[in-house]
């Protein structure tokens, strides 16, 4: 069996982590042959709760989980880690946009970027879940200059999973038969869920989902809005933000980053933009990517119609505004 790798989860005493830690520890992310040492970071007042989580992880009797290190010290948490799930941050409440969390959360990602820079392995893969995830990931990367920019990502996989589920329900097939739905841009209400290139698997042969459904109006309106507002709908119903589905998406994202994507299939990840498809550069923008040998590549050459380009431009503009806002907050707090 391989040597254990160190994996950190921040916000480890919170809602998302409660589902995510089990998925990671039972081998859903790094594989059934990969032993793990889990580093669990939370803030000092949560150390008692975290102790309970550590007890439960022990009581799960999971063979791959070799040890657990609970801590409130980022220097300990990020030491020699190969993968980082940055979940710890304040969630939004009903009536808020995720962007409203910048003031409360952006500083966390500055501090954690600096701690990653000093302590993590240089090939660490970082997934930012805490909102606003794209801008937090951009800030984290800026404060970790010794780690390649390509190693920082933001989670839009939950949006992708939501979009895939909506298309599957519309077509009337199991969700596993839908692929290549894209989320462009920001994990916010300006995101563009795009099913133009989505595929439906019907008895082994693949057809275009839009051609199958023949309802352009549904794709441009109901589908887009349902996915854009799904996070808010869950908050309105649960009085808390999504947790189980967010954990599943985080596990999917990191698994694909480590294990790769199947031939001909792509997934969506917030990654440092190179300006592809007219997106602004140097923001963390969600693109369709393929992954091989733990390296993602933006899918090039997709046909983009006028509607799609307008949506891509709009979400890009929001990310530029958030970037300005984030650096204003950081410089005011220095
Ligand atoms: P939660 O409040 O249940 O848990 C957050 C945890 O983070 C708490 O235990 C808190 O003490 C901890 N924390 C706060 N500051 C910290 C710091 N500096 N270092 C380490 N830990 C810290 O929230 P949750 O439901 O688990 O959500 C966490 C974040 O994930 C929120 O910002 C939420 O909006 C976001 N989220 C993102 C997505 C996505 O798709 N990108 C989906 C769901 C939730
Ligand atoms: C989600 O999409 O469910 C999360 O980002 C939580 C939220 O604030 O909507």
Automatic annotation (TrEMBL):
CDD domains: MDH_cytoplasmic_cytosolic
Domain Lactate/malate dehydrogenase N-terminal: 5-152
Tree of life domain: Eukaryota
Alphabetical list of NCBIfam families matching this protein: MalateDH-SF1, MDH_euk_cyt, PRK05442.1
Pfam families in UniProt: Ldh_1_C, Ldh_1_N
The family this protein is said to belong to: Belongs to the LDH/MDH superfamily. MDH type 2 family.
Catalyzed reactions: (S)-malate + NAD(+) = oxaloacetate + NADH + H(+)
InterPro entries (UniProt xref): L-lactate/malate_DH (IPR001557), Lactate/malate_DH_C (IPR022383), Lactate/malate_DH_N (IPR001236), Lactate_DH/Glyco_Ohase_4_C (IPR015955), Malate_DH_AS (IPR001252), Malate_DH_NAD-dep_euk (IPR011274), Malate_DH_type2 (IPR010945), NAD(P)-bd_dom_sf (IPR036291)
Gene: LOC108556428
Official protein name in the record: Malate dehydrogenase
Record EC number: 1.1.1.37
Keyword Protein biosynthesis attached: no
Broad class of enzyme this protein falls into: oxidoreductase
Presence of the UniProt keyword Oxidoreductase in the record: yes
Domain Lactate/malate dehydrogenase C-terminal: 156-328
Keywords: NAD, Oxidoreductase, Tricarboxylic acid cycle
Species this protein is from: Nicrophorus vespilloides (Boreal carrion beetle)
């Amino acid at each position: 069996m391989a040597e254990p790798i160190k994996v950190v989860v921040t916000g480890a005493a919170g809602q998302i982590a409660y589902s995510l830690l089990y998925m990671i520890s039972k081998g859903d992310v790094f594989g059934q042959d990969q032993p793990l040492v889990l580093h669990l970071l939370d803030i000092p007042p949560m150390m008692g709760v975290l102790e309970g989580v550590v007890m439960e992880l022990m009581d799960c009797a999971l063979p791959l989980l070799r040890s657990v290190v609970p801590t409130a010290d980022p220097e300990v948490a990020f030491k020699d880690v190969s993968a980082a799930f940055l979940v710890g941050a304040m969630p939004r409440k009903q009536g808020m946009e995720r962007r409203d969390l910048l003031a409360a959360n952006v500083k966390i990602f500055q501090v954690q970027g600096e701690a990653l820079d000093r302590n993590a392995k240089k090939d660490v893969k970082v997934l930012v879940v805490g909102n606003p995830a794209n801008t937090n990931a951009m800030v984290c990367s800026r404060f970790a200059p010794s780690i390649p920019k390509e190693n920082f990502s933001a989670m839009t996989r939950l949006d992708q999973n939501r979009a895939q589920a909506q298309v599957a329900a519309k077509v009337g097939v199991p969700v596993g038969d839908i692929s290549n739905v894209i989320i462009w841009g920001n994990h916010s209400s300006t995101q563009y869920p795009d099913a133009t290139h989505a595929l439906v698997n019907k008895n082994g042969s693949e057809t275009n989902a839009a051609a199958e459904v023949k309802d352009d109006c549904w794709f441009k309106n109901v589908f887009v809005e349902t996915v854009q507002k799904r996070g808010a709908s869950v908050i309105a119903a649960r009085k808390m933000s999504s947790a189980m589905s967010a954990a599943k998406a985080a596990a999917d994202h990191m698994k694909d980053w480590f294990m790769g994507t199947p031939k001909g299939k792509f997934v969506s990840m917030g990654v440092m933009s190179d300006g592809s498809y007219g997106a602004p550069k140097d923001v963390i923008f969600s693109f369709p990517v393929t992954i091989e040998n733990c390296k993602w590549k933006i899918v090039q050459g997709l046909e983009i119609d006028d509607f799609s380009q307008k949506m891509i431009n709009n979400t890009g503009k929001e990310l530029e505004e958030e970037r300005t806002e984030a650096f204003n907050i950081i410089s005011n707090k220095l």
